[in-house]
Amino acid sequence: MTKTLQVAALGALLAAGTVVASAGAAHAAPSNCSDTYTTFTYEVFCGKGDGEFQAVVRCYRIGSSNYTTRYGQWRRPNTVRSVAKCTTSEEPASGYWRFR
């Protein structure tokens, strides 16, 4: 019976250590973000935070009702902009940014 209690106690300690370790890995999402549209692009810049951000744009095909979603590069805050590009036969209809 004592061996069973020791194994249970060890399991509880390991589980508690896992919880503490994962709690320390939390990140603050990028913040202080701004965006802009150009003729063929949607661009995002985030100035603060951890993790990464990405520009996402829905491109409207001129002369049709088709939309295509295009993605910029994942970027770290306070480095460079993420730029999602439409083709020359499309124009940006709407855009947003996302985090990971």
Task: Explain the layout of strands and helices.
Elements: H1 2-24, E1 31-37, E2 41-48, E3 53-61, E4 67-71, E5 82-85, E6 90-99
Antiparallel strand pairs: 1-2, 2-5, 3-4, 3-6
Features:
100 residues, alpha+beta, Immunoglobulin-like, 3-stranded antiparallel β-sheet, 1 helix, 6 strands, elongated, disordered N terminus
Structure description:
It is a single chain. The protein is an alpha+beta fold. The protein starts with a helix and ends with a strand. It has one helix at residues 2-24, and strands at residues 31-37, 41-48, 53-61, 67-71, 82-85, 90-99. Helix content is 23%, strand content 43%. The chain has a single domain (28-99), classed as Sandwich (Immunoglobulin-like). The strands form 2 sheets. Strands 1-2-5 form a 3-stranded antiparallel sheet, with no helix packed on it. A 3-stranded antiparallel sheet has the order 4-3-6, with no helix packed on it. The model is unreliable at 1-24 (pLDDT under 50). The longest helix has 23 residues, at 2-24. It contains 1 helix and 6 strands, in the order H-E-E-E-E-E-E. Keywords: Signal. Residues 1-28 form the signal peptide. It comes from Nonomuraea harbinensis.
